[in-house]
């Protein structure tokens, strides 16, 4: 028997709001009761809008406008309630999306072949130059330093999670300000049709474009997003191997895949690799912690063990970078090698103890670009354009003022700003 009249108490948030959404429909008389009238009204308005969204998306957005969402999740969740916030943000994103997709559609034209260099871009899971936060042994990030002809801080959109936000920014060159409510998860629906990107730019120049990620290809809907961003091929765990649960594929093993693929595909190749080796949580058993590291971290620090596990994983990612540098040198390859961190690790208590509140990750580029060598801080959406410029520029040089670059003090071995 289908209920025709339903009364729900506590409907302004949590389970009550979820039940209200589940029972709502044109054939149901729905009574909602709650102490917080403002939140209850927000839930009711959002449910009403959802009924009409399929046919009247833009009208729904105008209706929700009187709730005055700020577009910032924490602010809107506090004012409207978490459930209403999700509904409001989702409805507005859906209404805005067709126009945004049309504006960001790529113009796919095959350019005349010209000289080009192989390009390897590595997205390091939770990677950043930890020497900025605490003093570490000399040579701790030797691989990163070997890549750091051009290097700097990378302004990424998220902290501790949501890898795809930085990933999308780097691969497309699109500033988050242009994404509206789709910025929180650009792979969810925005990338169903093709989206203009640096990958398409390389495709147009005759590159073979390949993405490697030793995990489930469907996670974050990457299986749909990567072709839309211009990748010819997307290899996941089913092709590369690796575990679906921790410990994941070691980053050094992923480096071997990259070098083998480079050998097989030739010089006009772009390889984008998403690592998994240092993915959290940094708990459980692993290889023994280096005593030299353990002695550098205060014993009374909250999340001390997790930080030590993270640092051990960071060093393994660095070994991957060194393996790539060595492999390219053995081959006499002119490949450009670039790497960056998607976000900082989610270790809030450890960072609080260290009095560290810098959200930025780090990047490095090994390109032999004489036009610029040193530190240059970038936003995530600038990095992809930078490395593709290096790969495609006739003289393999990028003007220093292209992204308002400024020479800044060189790196120190520890505690660098």
Please specify the SSE layout and strand pairing.
Elements: E1 5-9, H1 14-23, E2 29-33, H2 37-52, H3 57-65, H4 73-80, H5 82-103, E3 119-124, H6 142-147, E4 150-155, H7 163-172, H8 198-204, E5 208-212, H9 222-229, E6 233-235, H10 237-240, H11 251-265, E7 269-274, H12 291-294, H13 304-331, E8 336-341, H14 348-353, E9 361-366, E10 374-375, E11 378-379, H15 380-392
Parallel strand pairs: 1-2, 3-7, 3-8, 4-10, 4-11, 5-6, 5-7
Antiparallel strand pairs: 4-9, 8-9
Helix pairs in contact: 2-3, 2-5, 3-5, 4-5, 7-15, 11-13
In short:
With 417 residues, the protein is α/β, with parallel strands linked by helices. Helix content is 40%, strand content 12%. Strand 1 (5-9), helix 1 and strand 2 form a beta-alpha-beta unit.
Outline the structure in words.
By secondary structure, the chain is α/β, with parallel strands linked by helices. The protein is 40% helix and 12% strand. It has 15 helices and eleven strands. The chain has helices spanning 14-23, 37-52, 57-65, 73-80, 82-103, 142-147, 163-172, 198-204, 222-229, 237-240, 251-265, 291-294, 304-331, 348-353, 380-392, and strands at residues 5-9, 29-33, 119-124, 150-155, 208-212, 233-235, 269-274, 336-341, 361-366, 374-375, 378-379. Strands 3, 4, 5, 6, 7, 8, 9, 10 and 11 form a nine-stranded mixed β-sheet that branches. Strand 5 (208-212), helix 9 and strand 6 form a beta-alpha-beta unit. The radius of gyration is 24 Å and the shape is globular. The N and C termini lie far apart (66 Å).
